[in-house]
Design a protein that fits this description.
- The chain has five helices and three strands.
- By secondary structure, the protein is an alpha+beta fold.
- It has a three-stranded antiparallel sheet.
- The radius of gyration is 25 Å and the shape is elongated.
- The N and C termini lie far apart (about 85 Å).
Length: about 150
């Protein structure tokens, strides 16, 4: 009976040293990825919230492009959004309203010579503010005309 008990304990030894090392390495890699990329995704969330709050503004239709940018800049300062999102604000006027676009790309170094590229494209159509933040039109067609 004792021999059978020893056999079952031998089979249930647990994780080996190399298995534990692999789990720790994978956990470290995941934490590194999260710590490097999370700030960019938090900024993108604040960009969406800024566009939504701009869409709730009753005077949005009458605001100039400068006023729209100034309003977004205030929101970004309060929420500590810096860098590319603040530089990428574009306002395109149309016949039925305006489109406020914040389209940018971030390159974040991950490990040694490996970079992560994150692209964000948020839009607010003043004619349809309830559809905020998902890109509705391709602004490249407007840039080709300029």
């Amino acid at each position: 009976m004792n021999n059978q008990y020893d056999s079952s304990l031998h089979q249930q030894r647990g994780m080996s040293y190399w298995g534990l090392l692999l789990v720790i390495a994978m956990g470290g890699f995941v934490l590194t990825c999260i710590s490097k990329m999370a700030p960019a995704y938090m900024d993108a969330r604040y960009v969406s919230e800024g566009l939504k709050s701009l869409g709730d503004n009753p005077n949005l239709e009458t605001m100039t492009a400068g006023q729209i940018k100034k309003e977004l800049d205030r929101f970004f300062i309060v929420n500590n959004v810096r860098g590319e999102p603040t530089k990428s604000v574009k306002v395109v006027r149309g016949t039925k309203g305006s489109v406020v676009s914040i389209n940018y790309e971030l390159r974040q170094p991950l490990i040694y010579n490996v970079d992560v590229v994150m692209k964000f494209n948020k839009q607010l159509d003043t004619a349809k503010p309830e559809l905020c933040c998902d890109p509705l039109i391709d602004l490249e067609q407007f840039r080709k005309r300029d």
